[in-house]
Amino acid sequence: MISGHVFIATSLDGYIARPDGDLDWLQPYSEGEEDHGYEAFVANMDGVIMGRGSYEKLRQMNLWPYDVPVVVMSRQLSKHPPEDAPDGVWFTDGSPRAIMAGLERGGWRRAYVDGGQIIQSFLRDGLIADMIITRVPVLLGAGRPLFGALDRTLRVSHVETRSFPSGLVQSRYAVGQTA
After folding, report:
1. Superfamily assignment of 3-178 in CATH?
2. What string of H, E and C letters represents the secondary structure of the chain?
3. What Rg, from alpha-carbon coordinates, does the chain have?
4. Closest C-alpha among 32, 100, 112 to residue 67
5. 59-68 own/partner pairs: CB under 8 Å, 24+ apart
6. CA-based nearest residue to 132, from 151, 159, 107
7. What is the pLDDT along the chain (179 residues), one digit of tens a residue?
8. 131: how many CB neighbours lie within 10 A of its CB?
9. Beta bridge mates, 17
10. Checking DSSP bridges between strand 3-11 and strand 70-73, what pairing results, if any?
11. Backbone phi, then psi, for 25, in 5-degree steps?
12. Which of 128, 130, 56, 42 shows the shortest CA–CA distance to 89?
């Protein structure tokens, strides 16, 4: 059975990006020598599922860190895929459940789910098994939240927490059933 997994950073006040989508506040923490486990996490995934915003931000930064297949969820890009998309990227306007079912038929067992709205939709559909959330010691005051409205309570169980000399605090949660 396929499962979705999250690895994401948030500001101390729960934002994953500034209101305009900028991630400049993360830069000082991504340039250091600290190993926060991201590469090991991605190496354990069959591929990545992300939204258009995450895809476009990576492309804008001339950064493509993935050598695994990537699914981009976008109504717009699924109709008009960019000609310069990296190899191994495909675009879909399918629902989270339909995408996961198709990937499972394709042999995927573990999918890295990335991007605020995408994570929220996968959580609503019960498709996330666990989340690694790294809190960055910065207050943005406004921005794009990691979590949005839910139609029910989702139980999560704390698995572990690690702290780093840079001040980052990383917690892993198993996502349980609804309450």
Report:
1. Dihydrofolate Reductase, subunit A (3.40.430.10)
2. CCEEEEEEEEECCCEEECCCCCCHHHHHHHCCCCCCCHHHHHHCCCEEEEEHHHHHHHHHCCCCCCCCCEEEECHHHHHCCCCCCCCCEEEECCCHHHHHHHHHHCCCCEEEEECHHHHHHHHHCCCEEEEEEEEECCCCCCCEECCCCCCCCEEEEEEEEEECCCCCEEEEEEEEEEC
3. 16
4. 112
5. 66/42, 68/42
6. 159
7. 899 999 999 999 999 999 998 899 998 887 778 899 999 999 999 999 999 999 998 888 877 889 999 999 999 999 999 999 999 999 999 999 999 999 999 999 999 999 999 999 999 999 999 999 999 999 999 999 999 888 888 889 999 999 999 999 999 999 976 54
8. 21
9. 144
10. unpaired
11. -65, -20
12. 56
How many Cβ atoms are within 10 Å of 69's Cβ, its own excluded? 18
Torsion of CA 134, 135, 140, 142, to 10 degrees: 70
Place of tokens 């050598």: 67
Q: Are 19 and 79 in contact (CB under 8 A)?
A: no
Residue closest to 68 by CA, chosen among 45, 52, 85, 84: 45
